[in-house]
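Progress narrative, work stream C.
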Amino acid sequence: MEGEGNATLPPPCGASEPPFAWELLGSLDLAGRFLFAILTLMTLIADLVFIEEAIYIYRKVPSSKRSILIWINAAAPVIATTSCVGMWIPRSTMFTDFTAAVFFAIVIHKFLMMMIKECGGQKLFLRRFENDRFKISTGPCCCCCLCLPGVRITRQTLFWLKLGTFQFTFFRPVFMFLSIVLWTNGNYSLSDLSPEGAAIWISCFVAILTIIALWPVGIMFQQVRVLLNCKKIIPKFALYQFVLILNHLQTAIINILAMQRIIPCAPPLSSSARGAYVTHQVLIMEMFLITLLSRLVYRRKYDELEPPECACEEDGDSKQTPKIIFNGAVSEDRLPGF
């Protein structure tokens, strides 16, 4: 019975590989071609908006912040571009998704560095919060562990936060390279999530590394959101979270629905290929909107933060050395004869 049921499926529904680009384009009707044209145009507009924004940042923003802001603003246009390529060429899906994932891994680290830079750099950050503690009971790791004590803000704890995001920028390309090597040997397939396959294990390791990388960003945001409220850090963090959720969680949900055949096949696309096809189209529209919103948020000029009070007091103390008059003689910081 199972053999008869499988035999009734159209050949593309049982295919393990996505169709070639010419096969997909040849199967499109007028509405499908119009949709392709609109989504491609949205991708081009998003790229042009980013290029214009990058030129503005290069001309108007101090050199210490340029590269960080350009990397963060490039997240949505890059994901839209890779999704557009994956939409036109279905067989490139694995490579385009890996490229977007690696790029966003770098953006996670850059966003943490941006929050430190907006506080005046590492030295001023430590001076501002030298008497405070990091609240580590934040998502995605310890949001339910409210009893966890705060961690004192020192140079060492700041180093561990940076290391938590930097490890993801290092290991994500390593796992991508490993996946491609195993794929060429036939041991890696996104549709094979059995314990014998490599995809399930690599996905689990990447998920753990992702959670570890997101934790320092959440800790830092909880610490600086009041101080950087004047620089609209909350809208910036919200856009960063939207890109993260849409590019990772939304994609994972659609892929699971496709592998369970809840998303039906549509020749020449199999269920899994159609899931990736839908994901790319949705991501292009979402990243287009996020690109426009990012331009509004990051384009504005914000006043620099005032220097820490402790620094001002120390400077004032150093300028005014206490003087003691003793028998007509003036002495600084010491008594005569001692």
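Work stream C, second folded protein:
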Amino acid sequence: MSPEEKLDPIPDSFILQPPVFHPVVPYVTTIFGGLHAGKMVMLQAVVPLDAHRFQVDFQCGCSLCPRPDIAFHFNPRFHTTKPHVICNTLHGGRWQREARWPHLALQKGSSFLILFLFGNEEVKVSVNGQHFLHFRYRLPLSHVDTLGIFGDILVEAVGFLNISPFVEGSREYPAGHPFLLMSPRLEVPCSQALPQGLWPGQVIIVRALVLQEPKHFTLSLRDQASRAPVTLRASFTDRTLAWISPWGQKKLISAPFLFYPQRFFEVLLLCQEGGLKLALNGQGLGATSVNQQALEQLRELRISGSVQLYCVHS
């Protein structure tokens, strides 16, 4: 892409903030577009052996003086005989009534994955895939535009995602598949086995960052004979996203083109009877028809193109 070229306008709902890896704590960052129902924040981290406490604050601004309101304060404490979590709201410089949750599911010296799922009236929190607490908003969620992380915590990654639109494949919490942090990272092209094929309810997840001067991004599902009955391709030359048939026919997908250099994206494919549903950055984009026998005979997920992979799950 030349410097003179302009990016096509993209609706805010289609834009995902790139993940952050190994930030130094205390860490404060703007949440692109603020918080709204349907947003999900994922925290991958380690609790140090000598940890006393840490906190994750969803703030209404980032000023130092006066201190900003905190709509949701999540504060695990390890220094007592019974480790627990305190949740609260700071409004006008004053803390409100605190809520306490015992039986903290975090251990000193251990890694963890926390999901914060923001709904219309409350935030739900899961720890390592298990529901831990829910907290009803005391300030409007729309006022939140800043994330702050403080205290005794070694942060590995912070991800900003949208909740999956697939009702058929949903559970109380989506599977918070972690970002790949350690070397070697997934090489591109990447191949992942599908030993049992694809069955209704199964979801494929791909998260990646578009590289500089990209050419294409291609996701294909192949059978034992290496035929590809399903291919999804983003072409950077003509800015199109399309399904490609085994015979090379292109079926354009009506959606904003998101695959620009240094843009983070998430592809979800939900297997259902007779085909696959597609979502890009949490936005449903319809389906493509594939007969069930062909889905069951798939044996490989293959990804190629000008991307850096952060997560591949099938």
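The chain has a mean pLDDT of 89. No further action is required on this item.
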